[in-house]
Amino acid sequence: MAKYRPFPRISLPDRTWPEKTIDKAPIWCSVDLRDGNQALAIPMNVEEKLEMFDLLVSIGFKQIEVGFPSASNTEFEFVRRLVEGKRIPNDVVIQVLTQSREHLIRRTFESVDGAPQAIIHLYNSTSPMQRKITFGASQEQIKAIAIEGTKLVKELVSTVPRTKILFEYSPESFSDTEVQYALEVCEAVKEIWKPSREEKMIFNLPDTVEWASPNTYADQVEWFCRNISDRDQVIVSVHTHNDRGTGVAATEFGLMAGAERVEGTLFGNGERTGNLDVVTVALNMFSQGVDPGLELYDLPAIQEVYERVTRMEVPPRHPYAGELVFTAFSGSHQDAIKKGMDRRDGLKDADAPWEVPYLTIDPKDIGRTYKAIIRINSQSGKGGVAYVLSRDFGFGLPKNMHPEVGILVGDLSDRQGRELLPSEIFEIFKKEYLDVREPLELASFAETPHFAKGVSSTECTGVVQSGGKRYSLRGIGTGPIDAFVNAMREHGWDDFEVGEFHEESLGKGSETRAAAYIRLETPEGLGRWGVGVDTNITVAGVKALLCAYNRIAAARRAKPNAPEERAKVG
Question: Would the CA dihedral through 350, 351, 354, 355 be positive or negative?
Fold first, then answer.
């Protein structure tokens, strides 16, 4: 392992950032149109850039890096189109990037002439690796590049009198630069620019390549914030990348360490493994009760524009935005989520503290629907299937019925080796419970009060069909179900006992129907649930009774290892 060496730590034994929390939003700067665009296999064309710019404005970004206008005519013309088309709102500041080279800086000023406000973002690389390998230059030579570039930027401010110029300097590869040297370069730049409390300059501290763990970056940021002179005259900005997969953590630690500004892209698009994902950091704040200051309430719409103009895809497990991040396939997860959602549905206060297991935020708050929360495959459990039937089709199955239905659905998913759609789950439910008409099917039913010897009861009459024949039934009992059971016994259909009985309403108003759920038990220990639906609650109960009876008859005909046999444990 001699090829690789641990990244050196800086001495900061009294670091304070671990005790800090993020309690307010930073200044956000989107770099989608520069860092994001340069990382695309097919860069955005001008029309796509304009659509992306409008999207960023609508989200609420007040600082937007719109390009590297001296890099190409396309970049330059895009900035001019924004300016000349008066597409930049007065409260939005465009930012343009330039290396610290004279002809590039001059071209950059030409691009922003006439914009209401513009940040000139000057950079040059300062790290030992870049000094040695890329430039073959000494520390003094590299510092001189930053100084001369800053002098020219300051000189050229007067050439664009219609535009308010703000200044940002980045010691590129800050995280790989000796902190003392990075500070030295920044102090030299600040001495030239001469910011004030009223007219602050920005020091952006790029984690250009993520060489170390995020706590090391936080130490670097805190050290810089402590040691830069006239701290109240500068804004410290962080710009992280994701080479180690911890760009979000590095940014959050950087904010805790004293930074006030964040540069990043939507969904983390950028070179190599990407830039910071602004959406994730913002919604992390949101989940902690901190207003991020960005309008992310319709994340699917934002994602649609992003994917269309960048030709990139948000992965299904991407935080917050991914298709599957609010989805549970696991049975235990589904059960916990269902209980949490059911409990929340019973609360009167819509702003009550969010408490749903496995869900850090309410999907509705970012434009996601509850339909995607629970999806069913062979790993799913009884609670998930019950949740889908309740959420999408209104059937609130009794808890003790969940295992029976869960096994039926899980077995089909396992056999097919795929996720089942809600419509497919309902088809299974319908086939197994609502369309079961053999051997007994109800043709008619009526009930009347019965009073004899001072005791009130219920008398029922009905007709059932079986094997092509019709049978008239009559029975008396304590209620309509008991009466119908007694009527069935008169015809020899008597090898069962009623276990549980539940009923509920489906729908509202004139569309209201009733659903009934009955479980029957047999002497040999075979149990089955039945379901009945009708506009009349009593008829629904009788249909459920016959459904359960028919399912028991089917189970007796089935092989011992059939799913129905295993379902009796429910």
Answer: negative
In a shared domain, residues 426 and 448: no
Q: Is the dihedral of CA 103, 109, 111, 113 positive or negative?
A: negative
Quick one: tokens of 422? 């809600």
Task: Tell me, yes or no, whether 318 lies in a domain.
Answer: no
Expressed as residue numbers, the domain containing 154 is 24-310
For residue 439, name the pLDDT band (cuts at 50, 70, 90).
Answer: very high
Number of domains in the chain: 3
Q: Does residue 518 belong to any structural domain of this protein?
A: yes
The sign of the dihedral angle between the CA atoms of 40, 28, 187, 209 is: negative
The verdict on 158 and 289 lying in the same domain is yes
Q: Cβ neighbours of residue 175 under 8 Å, at least 6 residues apart?
A: 205, 206, 207, 208, 209, 210, 211, 212, 216, 217, 220
Does 430 share its domain with 519?
no
Question: In the β-sheet with 455-466, what is the strand arrangement from edge to edge?
Answer: 441-452, 455-466, 469-477
Q: Quick one: tokens of 222?
A: 């805190």
410 and 544 housed in the same domain: no
Burial 227-248 (b: 16+ CB within 10 A, else e): ebeeeebbbbbbbbbbbbebbb
Kindly state whether residue 212 falls inside one of the protein's structural domains.
yes
- What is the gyration radius of the CA atoms in the chain, in angstroms? 34
Residue 294 sits in the same domain as residue 348: no
Strand-pair category, 261-264 with 27-30: parallel
What secondary structure, in 3-state letters, does 178-240 show?
CHHHHHHHHHHHHHHHCCCCCCCEEEEEEECCCCCCHHHHHHHHHHHHHHCCCHHHEEEEEEE
CB 210 within 8 A of CB 242: yes
pTM: 0.77
pLDDT digits (tens, 9 = 90+) for 260-297: 999 999 999 999 999 999 999 999 999 999 999 999 99
Nearest to 185 by CA among 95, 122, 235: 122
Q: What burial letters (b/e) apply to 522-531, b meaning 16+ CB within 10 Å?
A: beeebbbbbb
**Which of residues 400, 434, 468 is at a domain's end?**
434
CA dist., res. 244 & res. 266, Å (int):
19
Q: What is the pLDDT of residue 566?
A: 43
Q: Is 316 exposed, middle or buried (0-12, 13-18, 19+ CB in 10 A)?
A: exposed
Distance CA 250, CA 389 (A): 43
| CATH code assigned at 260 | 3.20.20.70
